[in-house]
Structure formats: structure tokens, C-alpha cells
Design goal:
The protein has helices at residues 11-26, 31-58. It is an all-alpha fold and 59 residues long. Belongs to the UPF0181 family.
Length: 59
């Protein structure tokens, strides 16, 4: 696992991730797949945030 794949989440973000995982599992998604999906969403969200910050800092 490389450094870019690690997520730094606040406690609130962790709680929200757990809730999303639990919702997916309640819909029949396996725990591993639910974790993978939520982690992927969080990584994409953080990537977008980094890009926005980069663009704003270039202004």
C-alpha cells in the first residue's frame, strides 16, 4: 500500500464511512466490497479536493 492510498480522516468522516459501509452491507453487499467501495469514493473525493486546492493556490 503506497502513501497516496492512505486516507487521513477526521473522526466525523470515519463515522460517516462506517455508516455508509453498514448501509451497503444492509443492502447485501459483502463487508469487503463495501469497504472497498467507500474507500474508493473517499480517495476520489480527496483527489478532487487536492486538485481544487492546487488550482486555487496557483491563482
Amino acid at each position: 500500500m503506497n502513501e497516496q492510498s492512505l486516507l487521513n480522516l477526521t473522526h466525523e468522516q470515519q463515522q460517516q464511512a462506517v455508516e455508509k459501509i453498514q448501509q451497503l452491507m444492509a443492502q447485501g453487499v459483502s463487508s469487503g466490497e463495501a469497504i472497498r467501495l467507500v474507500a474508493q469514493q473517499l480517495r476520489e473525493q480527496q483527489k478532487k479536493t487536492r486538485l481544487i486546492n492546487l488550482v486555487l493556490n496557483l491563482s
